[in-house]
Amino acid sequence: VQLQASGGGLVQAGDSLRLSCAASGRNFSKSGMGWFRQAPGKERVLVAAISFSGITTFYEDSVKGRFTISRDNARNTVSLQMKSLKLEDTAVYYCAAARQMYTKEIKEYDYWGQGTLVTVSS
Q1: Pairing state of beta strands 116-121 and 9-12?
Q2: Cα-Cα-Cα-Cα dihedral sign, residues 119, 28, 111, 4
Q3: 81 with 71: CB under 8 angstroms?
Q4: Burial of 42 (0-12, 13-18, 19+ CB in 10 A)
Q5: What is the pLDDT of residues 86-98, one digit of tens each?
Q6: What is the radius of gyration, based on Cα positions, of the chain?
Q7: Is the pLDDT of residue 1 over 90?
Q8: Angle at the Cα of 62 (from 98 to 3), degrees rounded to 5?
Q9: 21-62 pLDDT, tens per residue?
Q10: Residue 64 in 3-state DSSP?
Q11: What does the DSSP 8-state code read for residue 105?
C-alpha cells in the first residue's frame, strides 16, 4: 500500500481543515487506517484510527469532538476532518495503514504517507 497525504496548511485557531490520504495498492479495504501527528521535538502519536469497515473509530482525548476520521473504500481514501483547531494541533500529520483490520498500536502500522504539515496560528 502506498499512501499520499494532502490538505495541510496554515490556518488560524478556531478554523477547520480537512486532510485526505489516497491509497494505492491492494488490500486497502482490509486495512485499519490511522492518522498520526508529530509535533517538533515530540514523539509521533496516534490521533485517530478507523477500522477496515469504517464502523469502529478511535480518537485521542485531545481531539475528541473536534476531529472526525472517515474512509471511502470505493475510492481508497481516508480523511481527517479537523474543526476548532488549536495552537497545540500544530504538527506534521501522517496517514498510515495497518496489517490488522483495526489497531491503535503504532508498531502495527506498516505503511506510511509522507506527512502533511498543519500549522495553527493565533
Answers
A1: parallel
A2: negative
A3: no
A4: exposed
A5: 999 999 999 999 9
A6: 13
A7: no
A8: 30
A9: 999 987 888 999 999 999 999 999 999 999 999 999 999 999
A10: coil
A11: -
